Amino acid sequence: MKKEALAFIIAAGMMSVMTGCVSQKTDDVSNGTEQPSYNEAVTENQNAEETENIEETEVEEEVVIEPTQEILDAELADNKVQLGNHVIQFPISFQDFIDKGVVLTSDDNPNTEIVEPNQGAGFSFVLDGKDYYSFADNIEEKRLQMKDCLVRGVAHENHIDIISDAIFAKGIRIGSTIDELKSVWGEPNEDFVDFYEYYQERELENSRVNEYVYTVYLDLETETIRFIDFSCNDVSEDAPIVTESAN
In the 8-state DSSP scheme, what is residue 223? Predict the structure, then answer.
């Protein structure tokens, strides 16, 4: 009888120990944090996949602006540049430029920004969703509000390429090869090794002035165009041309 009682006590003790282990194991897993059920985990994965698919759908491919026939037919002296889907002939009044749909992205206020005589004010802008940089020039002998100045071209800002979608005469743009450039623009007036200058100088009554200047910066490693600065002046076509090409 004593042996049976002792065996019962031992068995009860072992059950108690096992129960305690199971309880401890459960507590370790839980530890105050609810573990998701299988269905919850599957739902979370499905939601994550749906969100990822939506995000991928929302990412639009970069739209490449193609040159219009007007810009393909243009000559350097036409002073035409295609910005987005707009072909603009320079020089152009600041107000007419804004009327093309240009949205300023710089902090300049055309109504309060003052430009000194024979000076210019640079500004960045967006047209057709693309970023560009230009300048408003005061060619008067008096101070002018920015809104009363002329826009005479486009440029890069501090050698940062922000006019990759500007297209120039004959379809030349950033990324065009040097061979493509020379095949349609000819040899430059000035060859400075890592940049070319194309210009046309006209004789005025008491001075000479460049009708246009295209400064083409080159990537010598890839033999392509890095960026292009362009500016022009409003010069009568009757004014005699001094030089068409220095080479």
Answer: T
**Quick one: pLDDT at residue 28?**
47
* Distance separating alpha carbons of residues 165 and 156, to the nearest angstrom: 12
What is the predicted pLDDT for the residue at 237?
79
Residue 238: pLDDT band (50, 70, 90) is confident
Note if the bond before 67 is cis, omega within 30 degrees: no
Phi, psi of 67 (to 5 degrees): -70, 140
Structure tokens at 8: 């019962």
pTM (predicted TM-score): 0.72
CA distance 82 to 8: 97
φ/ψ (deg, to 5) at 31: 50, 35
What confidence tens digit (pLDDT) does each residue in 177-214 have?
Answer: 999 999 999 999 999 999 999 999 998 888 888 999 99
Residue predicted with more confidence, 114 or 52: 114
CB 247, CB 189: distance < 8 Å: yes
Strand partners for 203? 208
Give the residue extent of every domain in the chain: 2-58, 69-243
Strands 195-203 and 241-243: antiparallel
Please provide the size of the chain in residues.
247
DSSP string over 9-73: HHHHHHHHHHHHHHHHHHHHHHTT-PPPPHHHHHHHHHHHHHHHHHHHHH-PPPPPPPPPHHHHH
